Amino acid sequence: MSKPGATTFSAISGCASAFSGSNVIEIGAQVLHFDPPPPSRFNQRVPPEIDRLTLKALSKKPEDRFQTAADFAAVDLAA
């Protein structure tokens, strides 16, 4: 999970984190074993394009995430 992805998720969903748990071990297990929910699950005003962008930024595999901030900023939301 990337810091920009986590920050974006938090800002648009209204949730502190994509994962929850009663302690850091539970949260860490969720991060390792589960995909994050789309931000629109928590904020219905989030359009599908923003869900897609955020979930890409939160990808577990670093090679699937945006490689630079410029890549993140250059996303065509209409695509």
Our count of helices gives: 4
> Would you list the SSEs in sequence order as H and E?
HHHH
Percentage of residues in helical conformation: 40-55%
Distance between the termini: 23 Å
Please report which band the strand proportion falls in: under 5%, 5-15%, 15-25%, 25-35%, 35-45% or over 45%: under 5%
Which segments are poorly predicted (pLDDT under 50) over 5 or more consecutive residues?
A: none
Which structural category fits the helices and strands?
Answer: mainly alpha
- Overall form: globular
Indicate the radius of gyration in whole angstroms: 12 Å
Average pLDDT score: 90
Number of strands: 0
Query: How is the biggest beta sheet arranged?
Result: none
If you had to describe this structure to a student in words, what would you say it looks like?
The chain has 79 residues and is an all-alpha fold. The protein contains four helices and no strands. The chain has helices spanning 3-13, 24-33, 48-57, 69-73. α1 packs antiparallel against α3. The protein is globular and about 40 Å long.
